[in-house]
Every structure is written in structure tokens, then in C-alpha cells.
Write a structure and sequence with these properties.
The structure holds 2 protein chains of 2 kinds. Chain A is mainly alpha-helical. Helices cover 72% and strands 2% of the residues of chain A. By secondary structure, chain B is α/β, with parallel strands linked by helices. The chains are: A mainly alpha, B alpha/beta. The interface between A and B is large, with 64 and 61 residues. Chain B: Residues 48-247 form the Tubulin/FtsZ GTPase domain.
Chain lengths: 819, 458
């Protein structure tokens, strides 16, 4: 330092001290110390800094501004007005960096450190260096407002870390010690003088003791209750001993055995932090040997950041105790979401290293479907006992607490599904094709810094897409999934009308028997016959082979109609989509549709019998009113059944089918396919009031009651037709005699007698039965419509709209209430 | 294959529309005029067996019987590209070849005489199927063969096949101008009696309305016979489409008509079709949603029967409606359309029983391209049909009052002694009209009592 400069400083200090010479010396000493402390000036020349700035521009793709900056800087250089060029540049760079970090949500982005080194430095005198900077600027006639200075303070800390990779700790501490030595030499006179004044034997004793204490070693000779020591020193001692306590705490945690890969990484990281701490202590110890180099106060300043660091580490270590895997990561991540840049800087390497095992598990799982997780830390767990059939559903479960909080649920599910798909392909589809996924595993930090880089997300998505696309192609091409869906619609949901109609024709006699007298082999041969003659014969062989019958649970009161169901057999991967549970649902649906179809069949049959007998009826004019009632009733029932059927066709089957088709087209992974299928099945069940809802059960009961009445009506019509046929048969002789073609004479009286004794009573009972059925049917339909009105499902309510399109029932109910 | 349908084509008109019908079916199923399956017809979800059967060499033969008393039309068919389509054994022309001379009685008498031969063919055809569901009869009610012989066959069919359904596509004559056949009203009334008593379902094709539609919709000043027949074949193929393309519903004739026809006599159906285009005119392509189609079907101008909405203080209404929608349809549209139609009260329904617009979906043939996304056919039972019968009866009454042109009838056995058959037929038609009018009121439920009362009085 030039003498003129020293004189200038002295003058300045004199002004500062209001000409009080007793503190002048001290001030000058401090100021000169400050002025010569080069800490914080990481950049020895502006070329490296400029290089940084270029890179910064390039990183954000602002090439235009970069050029401009270059021009301005060149001009500034030429002018030579600015003496503190390096500092200004540094300041500007720091500003730019804050601007960009503020831009992002997460505040720190740093390249991965080569080691966790540098965490414990001889403390940075950042504040001091700024003061130096500001004094420099003052000298140069520049004025900065305080906010600038403040921001630069934190920035310099930042800068300090940014360059960690360049300056390894050793060289740095070395640098510092040399700097300090230099300082020492340079300021030999002043510093020596002051420190020799302050330091006595006592202090050096305390210092030595403290260095042990700070490593968690018992220091019985050092007591805070020691009255020989002044209060100020005592409080400092307490502070340093806290260090020791923290150190000990962390060490204990490190020494607890852990059964977790993430935990091991965590502990390894903690130990290396402690190692750094040790290194710091040893450096201080070294310094201690040089007299006047270390004082309690100096130590206090130096230890400021390391203490914070230790505190932070201890707190984290404490909260992480007993945790493993994703939970541990979640905690670390939670701590990292902190405004304090120190804490952020501590957690970054921690998170980085601890995420690696989980990252590796994820990559192994989504690329190969293998779970390499000896300590149950991964968020996908496997159950080896689960059979192939249930693989997709139960073998792999998502351990939600183990999902690190920086991985979203959506990502976790995608990861889960990707690995499941691979296993599904391997185990269930027996497909051993290795998918060629050219993807380098995402870096560890991209997992917990997703706002900053989409690398991780990209990796998941691309592997997910590739895998699920392949699985879908296997399902579609090799296993003809869509064909089976269509076959289900045609057979289990009665879409193949001609086959169903014919099947019913063939099975009618068989199914009218009691359920326990219906045998599978009889029905089976009938079904085969139906397949042979209807359009089902053009179906692919595979589908025909799968068609089967199933007889449901038999209770003594049931008829064949109630127990017989079409079934469709599945094997291999299809069993995962069409599970046993779904098969049972389909059977329930089929049973219902089959029942409604049977009603249609019955009403059509009744209609045809009535129509075809109408000429016979006409020859007995006495019954024309009854016949007319039969026709209007038949019409009412036909309309009801048709209405239900049209409702089923449109609102239930076709709507859900077109829905399902759309969803299946869009579905990417098997999970979505299953979901779509499940949705559609549930929708059908609800709309067919088979969902077990209370109102639905009542509706189903009521509908059954209506159906029973229709069957009842059918049998009455049979009786009526039989009766009319008998009568006409009996009349024949008389009529033929009447026309003179028959020889045997029949008394007209006998004819009248027969009419009164046989036909009339029969007709009377039929008539009263008809009347009962008619009334019961009306009431039942009205009740059914009433119930529909209150059903929670809006679609079911539309059934009542269909059934009562011309508002016939409402009209009749009001007229009844008025009469 | 169950539920086969045998088509009987009678007389000039019957054979002409039948011919068009087969042409249409062949096109829809991808069958060549020779009966061979076209190479492009690989989409196998259609049921060809309802209307065709396969010969030993796998070529398709229509389940059709062609009958006529004069050779002109059938000869024409036999010269057309479709000559090899039909089974030659099923083509029957009376050896006499003189025709029926537009005389119902002549046709009826001839039918009586040729009974054995005709029913040999029909029996054979019926035995050919696994379980024939019914017969479809194509004829006109105005001429001689279709009406007279048709009437005879209707009666016989009922006796011979008491369990089979009988559906007819009956062309009704023009009533708004001077008829080219003077005895047309006689023929019509006599045939109407058989249609009423012996058919299970009659689709009425009103020549007056067909001409009007052809003129208005197809923008033709004088539509040709072929164009009219094309309209008819469109209706016929449309109304059988659900039988030919199996789906959840309406896979057989009975399920199709049972809900349309409430009582035995009220079985005269009107039909409508939209959109109608002709082959040679480039028609404007309109928006065709389900609602549009359903709404247009209800418009009188699209209905193939000219009916009055009101007559003799009676407001006519629909007994039932069935819409068959073909093409790409979003199933959820149907419900919305029905709601809209009810809101706007676009259709009146009977007050004595439940009635609704039933909508059936049917596949469109993949081999025929149309400009329209959706097309629709309506089959409906409307009480207004009685006004058509009324007009026929008006003409009939004018003639019978003078006993004009009855000589030709008296020559034949049925009318040798008296004209009772005329009066009887007129009475049946009157009852039919009365029943249709009665069906517009709530009291129709008691119609049986009324009838019983009448018979007791007489």
C-alpha cells in the first residue's frame, strides 16, 4: 500500500472520528484491514467475468443484448472513466443473476458441485468487501443507494458459491491463509500491535479449549460459569460450544445404523459436511499457531456461517431421523423450499445425492419393470404372491407416502403404469420384446427442480408413451381387443338381434322348465344350432369358440329363463380387462336384457295369436267386446315393452357404447382402458336400475311385477283362444246341419244349452281374469312411472318420458282420482 | 335362417315395383344382377337370407314369386339384366295370357282357377325356408290382376298359412282426376275388403301422393312410372332395413308391425321418406340431423299418402309412429329430438292408449353412397287414412248408384246372381272408416261394446 494512500485514509478516518485521536488508531487499523481484505473478489481479471456474462446471455438466448452489451463495454473501456471496472461488472452480473432467479419460482440453480466441499470456509467477509466496494465507489464519485448495496450483499454470497466448483476448498483455504499471511505481513505493524494488546494467555487457552469443544470433545476446563472470564467472552464461548453440541448431534445421527439407500446417501452427505467442518477446525488450529492470527472475536466472525450451517444441518438431520426413501426426500425438499440462500445451498447437494437412489429405481422400473428396492423405499411396491390374472390390479401398488413431494401424483401414476405395463407385457402377454428406448436417465436435480428443467418429465413421458403405445398395439393386434368389445356388444348385449331371436325361439320350451331341470348340455346344443343358421356363423372362429352359456344360481322357484345366461370366455391378457367381476356384471346385464327381450317376444306372440285368431273371434259376436279389450291391452303392453326396449337400446346401450368407443380410441394406457370399460359398465347397470340403489331396486321389483302381469295376460289369451277354438269345433256339426251338409241331427236346444253351460262360464272367468290383469297392469305402470320420476339418475327419468310420450297415463290417473 | 320373407308380385304394377325393389336390394347387399356376390361386398354384417337364398353354386336367388295374367311386364323383366336373378320356376304367367282386363272379378276368377298351380309355387318356396315368417304382397288395387287375383291369393294364403304374417304394399289409384280405368272404384272397394279382412298389415302407397311428391320434391313436371316405382322401392327397402341389418331391435317383421297395429282392422300404414333425391337432378344438400329428419317425416308433404287432417268434424291423429333412421347417428340426439317434437306438439296422438314415436336405428348399406348423412323412413298408423277410403267410396257410390259398368262383373260366377259382394265390400270398408274415426276419440276403448250392440240390433 502506497504511503500517500495511507495518509489519505488517515485523514479520512480523522474526519470520521471527529478528531478523537484515541480511537483513530483503531479505526485506521480496521479500515486498512478492510481495504486489504480481498475476500469476495473472486475474479482476478475481467476476462473470466466477461466470459461468465456471455454465457449468461447465451443461456437465456439473448444474443442481441449480448452484442449490445459488448459494444457498450468496449466503449466504456476506451473512455477509462470507470476505474472499478471489475467490481462494476461483478455487480452487474450479480444483478442479472438475481433478476433471472427472481424470474423463476425456485430461487437457486447451481451446477452440481464437484464435492460438498467449500461448505465450511473461513467465513466470507462479504459485508466487509461490499463496504470496501462502496468506499471505492465513493472515492470515485459514484453514489449507490443502499438497496443496491443490500442486493449486492446477498449476491456476493451467491457468487461465492457459484465459483465453488472452480476453487476447491483446499486451494481456497490456502489462498485465505496466504492472504491472511500477506495481510499479516503487509499490515504487520498495526495488526501485531493491536492483537498483542488484546491477546493474553487466557484467551489463547480458551481458544485452544474451544477448538476441542467445537469438535464435541468434553472441555471440563472451560466453563461458562467461570467468573474469571468476562461476560462478553462467556457468551462467545457458549456460542462456540453450541457448535460442538451441534456437531455431536449430527455425528450421533450419522452413527445410527440405517436401512435405507436414501438414508445412506443422506448420512454420507452429512459425514462429508462434518469432514469439511473438521478441515475448517484444522485450518483454524493452524492459524492459531501463528501468534496474533486468531482471536475470539475473529473466530466469532469466521464461525458465523459455519454455525448457521451446522444448525441447519442438525435441524434437517433431526427431522429426517427414522425416515427413509421418498419420505426422507419429501422432508429434504420441504426444507429446501426456503428463502434463505444458505439453507438452499446446504440442501442442494443433500437433495442431489439423496435423489440418486430413487432416480435409479425409477429408471430401472420404467425401463425394465424391475423393482430393485431392498429397503422398501420406492413408491411402487410389489406383492409376489399375486397371480398373473390379478397382476395389473394387485401386484404393484402405489405407496403414496413414499412419493417424494417434488414428484407430482400424475407423474407417479405414469411411472407406476409404465412399469406395470412392462410387467404386464412380459408376464401376461408373454412378450419379451425389449423396447428400444434411447433415453439417457434424467439427471438427479431435474427431479426436484422440475420448474427449471423438463428433463425428468420428458423422460417419463417419452418412456410412458413408448411403452403404452406398444402395449396397446399388442392388445389391439395380437389379442384383438376391439373385436372382443364388439363381440360382447353383439352377444352379451344382444346386438346380434337375429341370433338372439332365434336362440329364444329354440330355447323357449327348455327355459320354461323349472331351473333345476334345465341342463347345460341341452342348451349348449341349441345355442350351437342358433349359431349355425344365423349371421353368427360368419363370426370369426375365435369369437364363436368363446361364446358359451352359464347357468346361474338355482333356487327352486326359478325358471330356466331366470338362470340361463350367455357367457363369453376370456383368457390371457383379456382376462385383465374382462375380469370375473366384469363377467358377472355382464351376466346381470344380459339377464335383464334377456328378460325384457322375452317380454317383447311374449307380447309379439300374443299380438300375433290375437291377430291370427281375429277371424275366428268374429264368428262369435258375443265376445267382440272382450276381444276388443284384449287388443287394447295387448297394445298397451306391447307399447310398454317396446318403450322399455327402445330406451335400453338408445339411452343405455348405444349411448354408452359410443361413449366407450370414443374413450377407447383416446385411451393411452391399460388403466384408462379399464377405467373406460368400468365406467361404461357402471353406467349401463345404473340405467338398467341394477345398481343396487334403493329406488333402483324398487324399480326392478316393479318392472318384474309388470312383466309377470304380461306373462299372466299371455296365458289368459291362450285360454281364451283355446276356448274359442273348442267352441267353434263344437258348433261345426250344428252349422253343417244348418247348411244341410251334415246328416247327424243336433237339437237347437242342446246347442243353446251347451253354449250356456260350457262356453259362458268359461268366458266369464276369462273376462274377470282379464279385468283383474288390466287393472293391475295400469296400476303397476302408474306406480312404475311415479317411481321413475324420483330416481336420482336423469337418464332413467327419460324412460318415463318414452313410456308416456302422449301423456296417456297421467291423464288416466287424474281421471281416476276425480271419479 | 329363421324369419324369411317371401315376396309375391302380382300384376303389372306389382311386378314393376317388385322389380325395382329387387334392384334396390341387390345394390344394397352387393349382389350382381346375375345373383353373384360382388367382389367388393365383403362386409358381412347384413342378412341376405331374409330375402334371398343361395343356390348350389352359391349365387343368390330372391325369395320372390312373380305372377301375372299377361306376359308384357314379366317379359320386360326377363329381357332386363336381372333376367337370371329370379328362379324361373317362380315366374308364372297365365297360359291364357289375356290378362284380367282391369276387371277385379276376372282376376279373382282366374286366381281361383289357377289356385293349384300358383300355390304349388308358393308352397315350394315356403318349404324352402327354415321358418318363413310371412309374405309380402306387391300389387295395385285398381287394375284386374293385382286387385282381383291378389284378393283371391290373400284369402287363400290366410287359410293355407294361418300362422304366417301377411304384409302388402298396395298401390292406391289416383283419385283426384279422371281414372284411366272406369271400374277402378269397384276394383278398389272389392280389394279393400280383402285387405281389411285378410292382410295383417298394409302399407298404403297412394299414387296421388306419389305423383305429388315426385313433382314437388324431385322437380319433375310429369314423373315417369319408373321414378314412381323408385319411390316405392325406397320405401320398401327402407322399411325392411332393420330385418336385413340385425341390431338390438326390430329383427323380424312381427316386432316391426306389432306395435304399429293395435287392432286387427287398423292396419293400414302410411309412409314417408326423407331426403328424397332423384338420380339425374343435383339436389341441394341440406343439413340432416336426426331432429331434421324426424321433423320432416311428420310433414304432410313428405307422406306418401294424401290424407286430410280433419274431415267430418273429426280431428285425425296418429295411432303409432315408427321412424327408421339410417346412417351415422349420435344416439343421444334421438332423445333430444323426441323431446323437441313433444314440446312443439308436432304430432297428435290417440287419447285412448299409450302412443309414441318409436325410433329404430338401422345400418346403411356400405355399398351405396349418398350425399346425406342421415335418412329416415316413417311408418305410421294415422286415422286420417280413412279420408282416402272415403274418396274411393265417393267414386264407388256414384258408379254403383247407376249400376254403371257392372255387366263385365255379372259375367263371372261371383256376380252372376246378384251384386251382394259389392254391397258387402262397401259395408266392410264403411266399418273400417268408422273404426278409424272412432279411434280418434277416447271412447274407442269401448268400441267392442258398440260393435256388439250393432250386431245385436241387426
Amino acid at each position: 500500500m502506497a504511503g500517500s494512500q495511507l495518509a489519505l485514509i488517515k485523514n479520512l478516518c480523522l474526519c470520521y472520528c471527529d478528531n478523537k485521536p484515541e480511537i483513530l488508531d483503531k479505526t485506521v487499523n480496521t479500515v486498512s484491514h478492510l481495504l486489504h481484505s480481498e475476500h469476495g473478489n473472486i475474479y482476478q481479471d475481467d476476462i473470466r467475468l466477461l466470459d461468465k456474462i456471455w454465457k449468461h446471455f447465451q443461456k437465456y438466448g439473448r444474443n442481441h443484448e449480448m452484442l449490445r452489451f459488448g459494444q457498450i463495454y468496449a466503449r466504456l473501456n476506451k473512455l477509462k472513466v470507470l476505474k472499478v471496472r471489475l467490481e462494476t461488472l461483478q455487480f452487474l452480473y450479480a444483478l442479472a443473476d438475481t433478476a433471472s432467479t427472481e424470474h423463476h419460482y425456485d430461487s437457486i440453480s447451481r451446477p452440481m458441485p464437484t464435492s460438498s466441499a467449500s461448505s465450511f470456509d473461513i467465513p466470507s467477509f462479504s459485508l466487509l468487501s461490499v463496504q470496501q466496494g462502496s468506499s471505492n465507489t465513493k472515492e470515485n464519485g459514484f453514489s449507490h443507494n443502499s438497496s443496491h448495496i443490500k442486493s449486492s450483499t446477498s449476491l456476493q454470497k451467491l457468487l461465492h458459491y457459484t465459483n465453488d466448483d472452480e476453487n476447491s476448498l483446499l486451494s481456497k483455504t490456502h489462498l485465505h491463509s496466504t492472504i491472511n499471511n500477506n495481510n499479516n505481513n503487509n499490515n504487520n505493524n498495526e495488526i501485531e500491535h493491536i492483537s498483542s494488546l488484546k491477546r493474553d494467555n487466557e484467551e489463547s487457552r480458551i481458544l485452544r479449549e474451544l477448538l476441542f469443544g467445537m469438535q464435541g470433545i468434553e472441555t471440563p476446563r472451560l466453563s461458562t460459569n467461570d467468573t474469571n472470564i468476562d461476560r462478553c467472552t462467556r457468551s462467545l464461548i457458549t456460542r462456540f460450544l453450541e457448535c460442538g453440541w451441534l456437531y455431536e448431534k449430527i455425528r450421533k445421527i450419522i452413527n445410527t445404523p440405517t436401512t435405507s439407500l436414501v438414508g445412506q446417501a443422506f448420512i454420507a452427505n452429512l459425514s462429508s459436511e462434518l469432514r469439511e467442518y473438521h478441515r475448517l477446525i484444522s485450518v483454524i488450529e493452524q492459524q492459531e499457531n501463528i501468534p496474533g492470527m486468531v482471536s475470539l472475536k475473529k473466530l466469532h466472525v469466521w464461525m458465523c456461517t459455519p454455525i448457521q450451517r451446522l444448525k441447519c444441518l442438525a435441524a434437517i438431520a433431526d427431522s429426517c431421523q427414522g425416515k427413509k426413501g421418498g419420505q426422507l426426500l419429501s422432508i429434504l425438499y420441504m426444507h429446501s423450499q426456503h428463502g434463505d440462500s444458505l439453507q438452499q445451498s446446504i440442501l442442494y447437494p443433500l437433495l442431489y445425492n439423496c435423489t440418486i437412489p430413487i432416480r435409479d429405481m425409477i429408471v430401472e422400473w420404467i425401463c425394465n419393470g424391475i423393482i430393485n428396492d431392498p429397503y422398501q423405499e420406492f413408491f411402487v411396491s410389489t406383492d409376489k404372491m399375486i397371480s398373473e390374472e390379478k397382476l395389473w390390479y394387485d401386484k404393484y401398488t402405489l405407496r403414496v407416502p413414499m412419493i417424494p413431494s417434488f414428484i407430482s401424483m400424475d407423474q407417479a401414476k405414469k411411472i407406476w403404469i409404465t412399469g406395470k405395463s412392462i410387467n404386464f407385457l412380459r408376464v401376461v402377454c408373454k412378450d419379451r420384446t425389449m423396447l428400444q428406448i434411447n433415453k439417457t436417465p434424467a439427471s438427479s436435480q431435474s427431479l426436484f427442480q422440475q420448474q427449471r428443467s423438463t428433463e425428468f418429465q420428458d423422460m417419463i413421458i417419452s418412456i410412458y408413451n413408448e411403452t403404452t403405445r406398444y402395449l396397446r398395439s399388442i392388445l389391439d393386434d395380437k389379442y384383438q381387443m376391439m373385436d372382443h368389445f364388439k363381440a360382447i356388444k353383439r352377444y352379451l348385449l344382444l346386438g346380434q338381434g337375429d341370433f338372439i331371436k332365434y336362440l329364444m325361439d329354440l330355447m323357449e320350451n327348455e327355459l320354461n322348465k323349472a331351473a333345476n331341470q334345465v341342463f347345460y348340455h341341452n342348451l349348449q346344443s341349441l345355442m350351437d344350432a342358433a349359431i349355425r343358421v344365423t349371421n353368427a356363423q360368419y363370426e370369426s372362429e375365435d369369437i364363436i369358440k368363446r361364446l358359451d352359456l352359464r347357468l346361474m344360481y338355482v333356487s327352486p322357484s326359478e325358471l330356466g329363463w331366470d338362470v340361463c345366461c350367455l357367457d363369453y370366455k376370456f383368457d390371457g391378457p383379456l382376462r385383465t380387462i374382462f375380469t370375473e367381476e366384469n363377467s358377472l356384471r355382464y351376466m346381470r346385464i344380459f339377464n335383464h336384457l334377456w328378460r325384457v327381450k322375452r317380454m317383447e317376444y311374449t307380447t309379439c306372440g300374443v299380438w300375433k295369436q290375437l291377430m291370427k285368431s281375429s277371424r275366428q273371434f268374429a264368428s262369435i259376436p258375443e265376445i267382440s267386446d272382450m276381444i276388443h279389450v284384449c287388443f287394447t291391452m295387448s297394445n298397451e303392453m306391447t307399447k310398454f315393452v317396446q318403450g322399455v326396449n327402445y330406451y335400453i337400446m338408445f339411452e343405455v346401450l348405444e349411448c354408452s357404447w359410443s361413449d366407450l368407443l370414443n374413450k377407447l380410441m383416446e385411451a393411452k394406457d391399460l388403466e384408462q382402458i379399464l377405467e373406460a370399460h368400468d365406467d361404461s359398465l357402471l353406467k349401463i347397470l345404473t340405467r338398467l336400475h341394477l345398481d343396487g340403489h334403493e329406488t333402483s331396486q324398487e324399480l326392478a321389483k316393479q318392472l318384474r311385477c309388470i312383466f309377470d302381469l304380461i306373462l299372466n295376460f299371455g296365458s289368459i289369451i291362450q285360454r281364451l283362444i283355446q276356448c274359442v277354438e273348442n267352441e267353434l269345433q263344437a258348433r261345426k256339426p250344428y252349422q253343417q246341419q244348418h247348411y244341410g251338409t251334415y246328416t247327424k241331427t243336433v237339437e237347437p236346444d242342446a246347442e243353446v244349452r251347451r253354449f250356456h253351460t260350457i262356453l259362458k262360464p268359461q268366458l266369464k272367468t276369462i273376462k274377470s281374469d282379464l279385468h283383474i290383469v288390466k287393472k293391475a297392469f295400469r296400476d303397476a305402470v302408474l306406480k312404475f312411472l311415479q317411481q321413475l320420476k324420483f330416481h336420482p339418475d336423469i337418464t332413467l327419468r327419460s324412460l318415463s318420458f318414452r313410456l308416456n310420450f302422449n301423456e296417456f297415463y297421467k291423464v288416466s290417473s287424474t281421471s281416476k282420482s276425480t271419479s | 335362417m329363421p324369419s324369411e320373407i317371401i315376396t309375391l308380385q302380382l300384376g303389372q304394377c306389382g311386378n314393376q315395383i317388385g322389380m325395382e325393389f329387387w334392384r334396390q336390394l341387390c345394390a344394397e347387399h352387393g349382389i350382381s344382377p346375375e345373383g353373384k356376390l360382388e367382389s367388393f361386398a365383403t362386409e358381412g354384417s347384413d342378412r341376405k337370407d331374409v330375402f334371398f337364398y343361395q343356390a348350389d353354386d352359391q349365387h343368390y336367388i330372391p325369395r320372390a314369386v312373380l305372377l301375372d295374367l299377361e306376359p308384357r311386364v314379366i317379359d320386360g323383366i326377363m329381357k332386363s339384366p336381372y333376367k337370371h336373378l329370379y328362379n324361373p320356376e317362380n315366374v308364372y304367367i297365365s297360359k291364357d295370357g289375356g290378362g284380367a282386363g282391369n276387371n277385379w272379378a276376372q282376376g279373382f276368377y282366374q286366381g281361383e282357377k289357377l289356385y293349384e298351380e300358383i300355390f304349388d309355387i308358393i308352397d315350394r318356396e315356403a318349404d324352402n325356408g327354415d321358418s318363413v315368417e310371412g309374405f309380402v304382397l306387391c300389387h295395385s288395387i285398381a287394375g284386374g290382376t293385382g286387385s282381383g287375383m291378389g284378393s283371391n291369393i290373400l284369402e287363400k294364403l290366410n287359410d293355407r298359412f294361418p300362422k304366417k304374417l301377411i304384409q302388402t304394399y298396395s298401390v292406391f289409384p289416383m283419385t283426384n282426376e279422371v281414372a284411366d280405368v272406369v271400374v277402378q272404384p269397384y276394383n278398389s272397394v272389392l280389394t279393400l275388403k280383402r285387405l281389411t279382412e285378410n292382410a295383417d298389415c298394409t302399407v298404403v302407397l297412394d299414387n296421388t301422393a306419389l305423383n305429388r311428391i315426385a313433382t314437388e320434391r324431385l322437380k319433375k313436371t310429369t314423373p315417369t312410372l319408373a321414378e314412381l316405382n323408385q319411390l316405392v322401392s325406397t320405401i320398401m327397402s327402407g322399411s325392411t332395413s332393420t330385418l336385413r341389418y340385425p341390431g338390438y331391435m326390430n329383427n323380424d317383421l312381427i316386432s316391426l308391425i306389432s306395435s304399429l297395429i293395435p287392432t286387427p282392422r287398423l292396419h293400414f300404414l302410411i309412409s314417408a321418406y326423407t331426403p328424397l333425391t332423384s338420380d339425374n337432378t343435383e339436389s341441394e344438400v341440406r343439413k340432416t340431423t336426426v331432429l331434421d329428419v324426424m321433423r320432416r317425416l311428420l310433414q304432410p308433404k313428405n307422406v306418401m299418402v294424401t290424407t286430410a287432417a280433419r274431415d267430418r268434424n273429426v280431428t285425425h291423429c296418429y295411432v303409432s309412429i315408427l321412424n327408421i333412421i339410417q346412417g351415422e347417428v349420435d344416439p343421444s340426439e334421438v332423445h333430444k329430438s323426441l323431446m323437441r317434437i313433444r314440446e312443439r306438439k308436432l304430432a297428435d296422438f290417440i287419447p285412448w292408449g299409450p302412443a309414441s314415436i318409436q325410433v329404430a336405428l338401422s345400418k346403411k348399406s356400405p355399398y351405396i353412397t349418398t350425399q346425406h348423412r342421415v335418412s329416415g323412413l316413417m311408418l305410421a298408423n294415422h286415422t286420417g287414412i280413412s279420408s282416402l277410403f272415403d274418396r274411393i267410396c265417393d267414386h264407388y257410390d256414384k258408379l254403383i248408384k247407376r249400376e254403371a259398368f257392372v255387366e263385365n262383373f255379372r259375367r263371372l260366377p261371383m256376380f252372376k246372381d246378384n251384386l251382394d259382394e259389392f254391397y258387402d265390400s262397401r259395408e266392410v270398408v264403411q266399418q273400417l272408416m268408422d273404426e278409424y274415426r272412432a279411434a280418434t276419440t277416447k271412447d274407442y276403448v269401448n268400441f267392442g261394446n258398440l260393435q256388439a250392440g250393432q250386431t245385436e240390433q241387426t
